[in-house]
Each structure stands twice: as C-alpha cells, then as structure tokens.
Amino acid sequence: MNLSSLGKSALLNAQNNLQTIGHNINNAAVEGYSRQTVLSQTAGASSTGAGYIGRGVQAVTVQRAYDGFLSGQLVKAQSTGAALVSYGHEIAQVNNLFSDRTVGINPAIQNFFDGLNAVASAPADPAARQELLGRAESLVTQLNDANSFLQNQRQNINTQLQTTVSQVNSYLERINELNQQVSAAVASSPQHTPNDLLDQRDQLVSELNQLVDVKVHEQDEVFNLTIGNGQVVLGAGKVFPLKVQPAHGDPSRSVIAYTSAIVNGEPQMVQLNDSAFKGGQLGGLLQYREQSLDATQNALGRLAIGIADQINQVHQQGYDLAGNTGIEFFNFKPGTPIPSNKTGVAPGPQLSIEFDDTSKLSGSDYLIEYKDDKYMMRTLPNGIAQEIDVSGPVIVDGISFSFTESDTAVEGDSWLIQPTRHAAGDISVAIKDPAQVAASGADTEGNPLGSANGENALKLAALQTEKTLGNGTLSFNDAFGQIVNKVAVQAQQNGTSANAQASLIQQNFAAQQRVAGVNLNEEYLMLDRYVEQFRAASRLIEVSSSMFDTLLGMRN
Is the pTM of the predicted complex or chain greater than 0.85? Predict the structure, then answer.
C-alpha cells in the first residue's frame, strides 16, 4: 500500500461523506426525510517487519437515523389528532346551530307558547288566533330547518367517506409499489438499505394513518397493512381495497367495506362496523356520526314528537269557535321500520310501530333480528339482544311494535327502527283555519263554554313547563336544553382533547426529529470537516507523486 492508495481511499471517503451531507442539506425541509450518514471503517493493515501498516479508510454503507419506536409514536399521535380534528369540524357546526339562544328553536318554542297565552287571554280574537298559527308555523319551520341541516350533514359525511376511501386506496397502491421497489433494491444489494425508498414508504404510511388508522406488519423489508380488527388491506404483494357502500340495514347510510377475498376476479366485500375505525379522518367522521349526529337528530325528533303529541292530546279536549271538538294541532308520525335480509330478499313479516306513550321515548334506535327461530331485539348501538314475544304488540320505551304474519320470517331477517330520527323534519301544522283552534273548555256536562272561554288554551300554554318528556323529568325547554348542552359538552371535550393531542404531536415530532431530523448547523460543520479531509487526502496524493518523481530523478 503506497501513499497514493492511502490518499485515494481517504479522498473517496471524504467524497462519499460530502455527497451524503449535501443530500441531507438538500432534503432538510422534505417531510419524512431521515438524516443519512456514511458508516466508515478502517481498511485494515498490512503486516511488515516494522509492524502493521494501515491501508487507509473505506465506506461500508450509508445509514439513516431512524428510531422505529419514536416514529411509531408520532404516527399514532398524528392519526388520533386527525380523528379529533375531523370530529371537531363536524360537531362545531352543530354547536353553532344550537348554541345561539336568541334565534332558532328555543325562541320559537317560547313564541309559540306566548301565542297560546295570548289566545287564552282573548279566545275570540281572530288576530290572536292567526298569530298563534303563524308562530306554530315558525316553530315547525325551525324544527324542519334544524333537521334539514343535520340531514345535509349526514349526506356530506357520506360524500366525505367516499372521497377519503378513494384516497386510502390510492395510498395503498403507492405503498405497494414502494414495497416492490424496496424488495428489488434489497435483492440487488443485500448489504445496503435503500434509505430514500424507506423514508418515502414511511411517509406514505404516516399520511395514510391520517386518513385511517392502519397497523404495519413488516416482513422481509415488506410492509403488510391491516385496519380495524385485523382486516388486511395490503398483503402478499396485493392491495385489498376498501369500498363505500350502503349499509345492509339502512340504504341511506354509507358504510365502509373491505375486500375479504377475490373470487374469479371479483372482490368479495364485507361491511365493517363504524366502531372498527378509531383514528384518522375516517375514524373521526364515523365516531361523530355514531356518537353525536345520530343522538342529536334522534333527540331533536323526540322533542318534536313530544311537542306535537302533548299539544294534540290537550287540543282535542277543547272546542273551537264553532263548538266542535278540537282536531289534531300538529301532524307527526313515527319512523318507518327498514326491513333487510342478508340474502337480499325482503323479510316476509310486516312490522309496524306506533307511539304508546311519548313521555317515555328515549330517542334510541332499535334492531330486531330473526335468529335461531327467535325474534331478538336490542337497543342500538350497544344494547344487549333480548328475545321478544311477537304474538302481540311489544311495548318498549313508549313504542308499540306489532308484527303481521310472523310465521313467515326466515333466518337473517332484520328490521331497523328509528322512531324519532326524522320526526323533526316530518312535523307540520295540521290546522289551517284560525277558527279551528280549540281554546274553549267544557262544563261539567261536557258542553262547550263558548267562544269567550280560554280554559283549554290555558291548559295548552301550561304544557310549556310541565314535565312531559323523559319519563316525566323534562319539559320541552329542558329537552332542548339537554340537546344544546350535550352538543356543547361534546364540542368542548373534543376541543380540549384536540389541543392536548396537538401538544403531544409536537412533543413526539420533536423527539423523532432529534434522532432523524437534519440539523443544518451540524451539517455545515461536518461539511467543513470533510472539505478539510478532502484537501488533506489530495495533499497526500500530491506528496506521493512528488516522492515518485524524486525516485525517478535519482534513478537517472
């Protein structure tokens, strides 16, 4: 080994380091890039009579600064943060809808009962009666509009699910492509790692986790990905795409299905429960729909039904200006059961529901399934299934369920019941003629007390403060206040959690960057160091050349 070879090895090592440092500097701002360093070692030594004389330096490989634990923590934190942000965006809109007590449903309820008090004070006054109908229409409009807003939000979630799932499938394809590139790179050079490809793949997985929480299972440098309870979306070099499709039990509700297998070139889709998704935008959207939107719309429907039914009951006890018995003041109806069967055949038995006692309504949804020759009923989303006897009406939470032709049910038949879901959108004012307002009461013999009597109107006005909902625990204002407070609490909790999660993300990012991030100041110092090494190596070659020339000169 001569000086020229020593200089050459040092020169090449310095050059490798300079190129790697330059690569770091160029990619310092690239998201997901991990700092790279050249791993060098001595080239060994030759045995001589004077001892072992070194043969210089050599670059072994280029390694990236990577900590799987810290990176995993950051990805998980970001996935949770994305879910909170997605949830928060939706709940904030509902909170804004209900939080203003000066407009909307709350003042509309107050104005309606003020109108009833005005009629009670002047039962024969046509202006007061007309004003009452106008205020009733205003209340109905507020309930309809609020329900429309929630329904539009529900449709928007369906659209967002479709868009997000398309993005998820695109990420899966790109990660699969990088898997193949990584495998090819490792196969061609087993002793080295394709650092840039690994960074790109990790970054894609990080971005994918902000859409949906995925778990990574690495085997032989290849990423296999699962979601939910272990459903494979990328494995064995194949992508098993997700798909948005109508729920089996509710065609209006979009759910996510995964590809369980591919048979004869056709994907076999299996629907996943919303609860299977915990993180990412999908998790936030589905969690919001299940925990907040469904409950809020159901509670709003319960309020509309409670107002309509209680007013109707009292109104029908009174008499109008013509002395006729009062008719229904509001139109309303329970939700229509949605039949389903896993075989695609509509269930034979017909299920009908009606309200037995609206004061007992819980605002819950229900599912009845026919399994093992039994009808099983449970409260959604997490109620325990219990057998019911359908030989007669089944009364649960103030709702009467009745089957016809129950003996024709087959295994897998099911019925989704949403008694109050759309009630706030269906309610309307039944009375169109002010003279039909039944403000008058009756004497002990049941005779109308006349147009100047407002006894029944007073009873109607008194309903404002009576506990007619929630098993006698809530007034109309209480029931609406419960909706407002619940939404506000959910929005506040989400905001608090989102802020805390943002701080956690920053902490995890800082910890990860301390290991993998590029410090430009440090790179500049290393740049100067290897420039000096490059110069020294060049000088060594120059000295070797001078010595060689001197030797040639001595020979001459």
Answer: yes
